[in-house]
Design a protein that fits this description.
With 278 residues, this protein is an alpha/beta fold. The protein is built from 7 helices and 13 strands. Strand 9, helix 5 and strand 10 form a beta-alpha-beta unit. The radius of gyration is 18 Å and the shape is globular. The protein starts with a strand and ends with a helix.
Length: 278
């Protein structure tokens, strides 16, 4: 993996050059093995939290981890295009618009002892801006190359905070073009419901059960590109013990191996519907 400026990343995308890179400020990674018709994203995978914020933050390191989406990049790391955040959503949230990307409070608790200085916010918002410059160039390249693209927007959620039974996988589709794409959302949900997991986990999948797909990553791409479907795919944190701060690597690996088989097949069926719409 190389360290690249945003300018260099954009140039490589424009030239359709494969590369593995971390951004110059270490805020996100982008891996392009080949310019396929599908992209995987993990915007909340990051846990990095720059040191100048530590003393001013009221949330503990564990509280931040609890609300992040650990291992979501690992779940899709074998696919040809993967873009993932390195920074914690508690610094700035890539799944919120720029005006709301920096939290004042988080999950009912004030985040900062003292209000952030404007220059501190600007440093974070510049990273948010740069990420979306690259996202825009990447999706533009894929859609122009193939006529259509599908983005798998990977997340996780804390199932233990719900007081009812919730699905192992939830798809949020309220902000996609359901007239055109609902069939592919349904087929993706069905595929995910068949995933085999260890530790006696019974996989269930649902659409718009716990979350509806209201994130900025999905909305940004959907609003800027006519033929790109974004599937907000949320695994409940059955792959860790969210209260004890313990990861279950065998479950993460199983999800990765299942997605290695299922995700390309689904993406191919989506793409083929555009090149042969019979």
């Amino acid at each position: 993996m190389r360290r690249l400026s945003i300018k260099d990343m954009l140039a490589k995308i424009q030239a359709e050059e494969p590369f593995h890179a971390v951004s110059e400020d270490y805020s996100f990674t982008l891996k392009i093995d080949s310019y396929s018709y599908y992209i995987c994203g993990a915007v909340h995978d990051g846990h990095q939290f720059r040191k100048e914020l530590w003393a001013n933050c009221l949330h503990t390191e564990y509280e931040r981890w609890y609300e992040e989406d650990p291992a979501t990049k690992q779940m899709v790391q074998s696919h040809p295009i993967v873009i993932a955040g390195c920074d914690s959503r508690f610094e700035y949230d890539l799944n919120r618009d720029p005006e709301n990307a920096i939290y004042e409070d988080a999950w009912g608790k004030q985040l900062w002892k003292n209000s952030l200085k404007s220059e501190t916010k600007e440093r974070s918002l510049q990273k948010h801006h740069n990420f979306y410059r690259v996202v825009h160039a990447l999706v533009s390249k894929i859609e122009s190359k193939y006529g259509a693209a599908v983005v798998y927007d990977m997340h996780s959620y804390n199932w233990r905070r719900w007081d009812r039974e919730v699905p192992v996988v939830n798809l949020g589709t309220s902000n996609i073009d359901n007239d055109r794409f609902s069939t592919f959302a349904t087929s993706w949900s069905n595929d995910l419901s068949e995933i085999k997991l260890p530790n006696a986990i019974t996989t269930t999948a649902a659409i718009n059960d716990t979350f509806q797909g209201n994130g900025y990553f999905l909305k940004y791409i959907t609003n800027h590109f006519n033929n790109t479907l974004v599937l907000a795919t949320e695994f409940s944190k059955i792959y860790c013990h969210e209260l004890e701060y313990i990861m279950y690597p065998e479950v993460v690996n199983s999800i990765e191996q299942e997605l290695k088989l299922r995700l390309p097949k689904h993406a191919t069926s989506f793409y083929q519907s555009f090149i042969d719409p019979k």
